[in-house]
């Protein structure tokens, strides 16, 4: 894997210029179950192949020079799936961290986990902390793992924290502004996603990064996640690079 330049100087940089690569790509990795069902396989096989697609995608993102890659791995609503599938997905996360952490670390990738950790089993929580600790000083791409993540839950936790600070007299209600909320989200310090890719043809957010997606561009790929490859990723990137982002203002040519 190639190592990208240092991150520190660009965290506060303006959003990517027109025609530039997205700085932050967020992925809704969807369609594992349908991929498997179409092949007469159990859904878990789809998840297993989905892990291969994830490895491929991380390598490609690093090589391409993406600075932040967020992956939606398990939502706060995915607990409602049958228990064996939930267990399989928990096992897959363990396997991912145990088998891939060294390669990820060697590629100078920093891992950051978002989502509610408190309700996860202690063994998984410890693995996530280990992954973050080992990679915390890496200066290449940041891999944001959304696990047990739900946007409404994240916002509710942030608001609860604000309320506690007000109740303790550490914060005045009039100081609660957009930055105060954003800085208490799990994604504090991470720039908003420039591009959100969802595979498998569904056209929805499913409780993913709703605050952060205010001005994200969307790319919907018909490909089921296990089949997502470098070409499908590049297609999403070139789609993004052809977009005109206005952030509520006017473009230079309209002025
Ligand atoms: C995405 O694939 C993986 C997770 C949500 C964990 P799905 O399991 O949602 O696959 P489909 O959408 O049922 O095909
Ligand atoms: C979103 O996919 C969650 C992840 C990819 C982890 P889902 O498959 O859970 O979303 P819905 O249920 O189709 O909206
Ligand atoms: Mg799905």
TrEMBL record:
Enumerate the residues binding Mg(2+): 30, 217
Q: What HAMAP family does the annotation carry?
A: ISPT
What the entry lists under InterPro entries is as follows: UPP_synth-like, UPP_synth-like_CS, UPP_synth-like_sf
Amino-acid positions noted as binding substrate in the UniProt annotation, renumbered to this chain: 31-35, 43, 47, 75-77, 79, 81, 198, 204-206
Q: How is the cofactor bound here?
A: Binds 2 magnesium ions per subunit.
Q: Which family does it belong to?
A: Belongs to the UPP synthase family.
What is the name of this protein? Isoprenyl transferase
Q: Which CDD domains match?
A: Cis_IPPS (cd00475)
EC no. given is 2.5.1.-
Q: Give the species this sequence originates from.
A: Roseibium aggregatum
- Is Nucleotide-binding there in the keyword field? no
Q: Which domain of life is it from?
A: Bacteria
The UniProt keyword set, sorted, is: Magnesium, Metal-binding, Transferase
């Amino acid at each position: 894997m190639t190592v990208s330049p240092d991150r520190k100087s660009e965290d506060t940089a303006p959003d990517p210029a027109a025609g530039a690569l997205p700085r932050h790509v967020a992925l809704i990795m969807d369609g594992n179950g349908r991929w498997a069902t179409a092949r007469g396989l159990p859904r878990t096989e789809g998840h297993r192949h989905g892990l291969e697609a994830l490895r491929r995608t991380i390598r490609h993102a690093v090589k391409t020079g993406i600075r932040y890659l967020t992956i939606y791995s398990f939502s706060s609503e995915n607990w409602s799936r049958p228990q064996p599938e939930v267990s399989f997905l928990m096992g897959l996360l363990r396997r991912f961290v145990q088998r891939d952490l060294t390669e990820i670390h060697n590629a100078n990738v920093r891992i950051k986990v978002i989502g509610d950790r408190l309700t996860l089993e202690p063994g998984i929580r410890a693995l996530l902390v280990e992954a973050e600790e080992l990679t915390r000083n890496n200066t290449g791409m940041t891999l944001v793992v959304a696990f047990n993540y739900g946007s409404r839950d994240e916002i509710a936790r942030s608001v609860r924290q604000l309320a506690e600070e007000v109740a303790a007299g550490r914060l005045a209600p009039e100081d609660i502004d957009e930055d105060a909320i954003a800085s208490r989200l799990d994604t504090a310090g991470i720039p908003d996603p420039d591009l959100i890719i969802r595979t498998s043809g569904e056209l929805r957010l499913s409780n993913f990064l709703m605050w952060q997606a205010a001005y994200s561009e969307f790319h919907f790929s018909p490909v089921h996640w296990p089949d997502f490859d470098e070409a499908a990723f590049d297609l999403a990137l070139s789609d993004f690079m052809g977009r005109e982002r206005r952030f509520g203002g006017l473009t230079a040519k309209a002025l």
